[in-house]
Design brief:
By secondary structure, the protein is mainly beta. The chain is 6% helix and 46% strand. It is built from five helices and 30 strands. Bound molecules: copper (II) ion (CU).
Length: 438
C-alpha cells in the first residue's frame, strides 16, 4: 500500500505525530435541538486550528473512523503531490478503519486550511458538504502583530438539497448557515473593548456558496487574501468570499455597542449566518445595519498595472455547462471535455504560465490551483498585479487571467471549488514533463 511507503509500521510506534485528526460521524448541534448528522475531525466543527511555524516539518496522523475512503487536502500549501491530499495527484486514500501519516514542511506562511477532497456526486452527506474542515495558520518568520486580538471564523452551509441554479439547471441550496458551526444567537459573543484592533481570519468553508460578510457599524481593512498580504490594504464595508477563499481583515473597534457580524443578505442571516460582537460594558440586543454598499473588486487591493513578469506561455481554459434538462445536475466542461477526459496540461519546470480562464456560463466559479500560488493578472481585460491567491472567482461570462511559475514538480489539480461543479466534470490535471535539464 502507498501508506507503507511513507510511514513504515515501526514509525507509528516510535514517534508521536504533532497533530492527530480522527475522522468520524458526528451529531452536530448547530442550535438547541437542531441536529445535523455529519462527519467531522476530532468531534468538532471546525477541526482543530493547526498553528505552525513556517519551514518547520510537521507530522499529522489521520485516522478514518467512517465507512468510506477519506483523504485530507492541505489547501494552499506548496507541498509534494503525494502529501497534498488529492487522490488524482497520487496521494493515497485512507480506507475505512485505516490511517495515514502526512508529513511535510508547511509553506508558504499565512492563513491556509484543510478539508476533505472526495467526490460527493449525488450523495450530499459526503465531501465538503460535511463538517470536514479546519484552519491551518502558518506563522510567518516575522509577524508584524499590529493587533490586540486575533480570531478565526469559518462559514458553512448545511442540509443541502437541489434547487434551480444560475443556468436554470440544478445546484445545491441549503437550509442552515453557520459561523463556526453555530447558528446566529447560539454562540458565545466575541468580546472586544473600545480602541482594540482585532484581526479576523475569515474562511468560506461552504461546499458551494459564495458569501458576503459585513460587521455592522464598522469598516473592515483587508490586509491579506488566501493568506497572502495584499499589495494595497484597503477599507471596505463588505467582503465577498468565494468558496474556499480566505480574507484577513483588521477592524478598529471604534463604535461601542452590540453588533452583528454576518451575511449581508437577510435570508442567509435568518438561516443562521451571523455572530455577535460585544463591546465591554454594553447591553442590549445585537444590531444589524446594512452596509452602505456591497461591491467587491479584487483590483482595489492590488496595483492597477500589468504584471511585472510576462508569461512564457498562455493556457486557454474555456468553461461551459451542459444542460441535462430541468431537475438534473449540469455537467461541466473545460475546453469541451469533462474530467477525467479533460486534456492533461503538461508543464515544464521553470516556465511561467498564464491561465486564461474564460467563463462561458451564467455562474461565478471559484477556481483553485493546487500546490502553487498564482498572481491574478487581469479581470475582464483590466490588468492588476501583486495579488497572490490560490482561489479566484471567475465571474459569470467573464475572463480572469492568473499567472504562476511551474516550480513545484508533480501532479497538480485544477478545479472549480464548488463541490457540485467539481463532481460533475469541472476539473483538470496538470503534470510536469520529465526534466530535460542536464
Ligand atoms: Cu463552478
Amino acid at each position: 500500500m502507498a501508506g507503507a511507503t511513507f510511514a513504515p509500521a515501526f514509525l507509528w510506534a516510535q514517534s508521536q505525530a504533532d497533530y492527530r485528526l480522527e475522522i468520524a460521524p458526528l451529531e452536530l448541534e448547530i442550535a438547541p435541538g437542531k441536529l445535523i448528522h455529519t462527519v467531522a475531525y476530532n468531534g468538532h466543527v471546525p477541526g482543530p486550528l493547526i498553528r505552525w511555524p513556517e519551514g518547520k516539518p510537521i507530522v499529522i496522523d489521520v485516522i478514518n473512523r467512517t465507512s468510506v475512503p477519506e483523504i485530507v487536502h492541505w489547501h494552499g500549501q506548496e507541498i509534494p503531490s503525494l502529501m497534498d491530499g488529492a487522490s488524482e495527484e497520487g496521494s493515497p486514500m485512507i480506507p475505512p478503519g485505516g490511517q495515514f501519516r502526512y508529513s511535510f514542511t508547511p509553506h508558504p506562511a499565512g492563513f491556509r486550511w484543510y478539508h476533505t477532497h472526495t467526490f460527493a456526486r449525488h450523495d450530499f452527506k459526503r465531501g465538503t458538504y460535511t463538517g470536514q474542515f479546519g484552519c491551518f495558520y502558518i506563522e510567518p518568520k516575522n509577524d508584524p502583530g499590529a493587533y490586540d486580538q486575533e480570531i478565526f471564523l469559518t462559514l458553512h452551509d448545511w442540509n443541502p438539497y437541489l434547487a434551480a441554479g444560475g443556468d436554470a439547471s440544478m445546484d445545491a441550496a441549503y437550509d442552515y448557515s453557520t459561523i463556526d458551526s453555530r447558528m446566529f444567537g447560539h454562540a458565545d459573543p466575541v468580546k472586544v473593548r473600545e480602541g482594540q484592533r482585532v484581526l479576523i481570519h475569515l474562511l468560506n468553508a461552504s461546499a458551494s456558496m459564495i458569501h458576503w460578510m459585513a460587521l455592522a457599524g464598522h469598516e473592515l481593512t483587508v490586509i491579506a487574501m488566501d493568506g497572502n498580504p495584499v499589495p494595497t490594504p484597503a477599507t471596505t464595508a463588505a467582503i465577498r468570499l468565494g468558496t474556499a477563499e480566505r480574507v484577513d481583515v483588521l477592524v478598529t473597534m471604534n463604535h461601542p455597542g452590540i453588533w452583528i457580524l454576518g451575511e449581508t443578505r437577510e435570508p442567509f442571516r435568518k438561516a443562521g449566518m451571523g455572530t455577535v460582537i460585544e463591546y465591554a460594558n454594553q447591553q442590549g440586543k445585537p444590531r444589524w445595519i446594512d452596509p452602505p454598499e456591497t461591491l467587491w473588486d479584487y483590483r482595489r487591493f492590488a496595483e492597477p498595472q500589468a504584471t511585472a513578469h510576462e508569461p512564457d506561455q498562455v493556457i486557454p481554459l474555456r468553461f461551459e455547462s451542459k444542460f441535462h434538462g430541468p431537475g438534473a445536475l449540469a455537467t461541466w466542461t473545460i475546453n469541451g471535455k469533462s474530467f477525467p477526459r479533460t486534456d492533461m496540461i503538461m508543464l515544464k519546470e521553470g516556465t511561467r504560465y498564464r491561465l486564461q480562464m474564460i467563463n462561458r456560463s451564467a455562474d461565478d466559479h471559484p477556481l483553485h490551483l493546487h500546490r502553487h500560488t498564482f498572481e491574478v493578472t487581469s479581470i475582464n481585460s483590466q490588468p492588476l498585479r501583486g495579488l497572490l491567491k490560490d482561489v479566484v472567482v471567475v465571474p459569470a461570462n467573464g475572463t480572469v487571467e492568473a499567472d504562476f511559475a511551474a516550480n513545484n514538480p508533480g501532479a497538480t489539480l485544477f478545479h472549480c471549488h464548488n463541490q457540485t461543479h467539481m463532481d460533475f466534470g469541472f476539473m483538470s490535471l496538470f503534470r510536469y514533463s520529465p526534466s530535460a535539464k542536464v
